[in-house]
Amino acid sequence: MIASVIVPIIKISGLSHICMIRRSRYLKNHPGQIGFPGGFIEKNEDVFSGALREMKEEIGIDKESFTLISKLDNQFTHNKIEVVPFIGFIESSIFCLSKNEVEDVYFIAIQDILKTEKEFILMNDGREIIKYRIEDTIIWGLSATIIENSLPILNSIR
Question: Which of 41, 65, 77, 145 has the fewest CB atoms nearer than 10 Å to its CB?
Answer without folding.
Answer: 77
